[in-house]
Design goal:
The protein has 1 helix and 4 strands. 6% of the residues lie in helices and 28% in strands. The chain has one helix at 31-34; strands at 36-38, 43-45, 49-55, 64-70. It has a two-stranded antiparallel ribbon. A two-stranded antiparallel sheet has the order 3-4. By secondary structure, it is mainly β.
């Protein structure tokens, strides 16, 4: 089995907020964003398994968490 990073940055948006301000931010994560290069077959592949989507202000923050189950 290939080793995968624990976390990867897939989508980034800089949002400026005043103190106490709230703003809706939409993200789109495409299939191609989740694919990895298959070293054996030399092509991009979407591996099955659970993918955890974490949204936060930086890599240490986990304000929103969702899980995708790819079969």
């Amino acid at each position: 089995a290939e080793r995968m990073p624990i976390k990867e940055l897939k989508v980034f948006k800089r949002v400026h907020l005043a103190k106490g301000e709230k703003k809706r931010v939409d993200f789109v994560i495409n299939k191609s964003d989740l694919q990895k290069w298959d070293l054996e077959f030399h092509q991009w592949k979407l591996y099955s398994g659970k993918y955890t989507i974490i949204i936060g202000g930086n890599s240490a923050e986990e304000n929103l968490i969702a899980t995708l189950d790819i079969k």
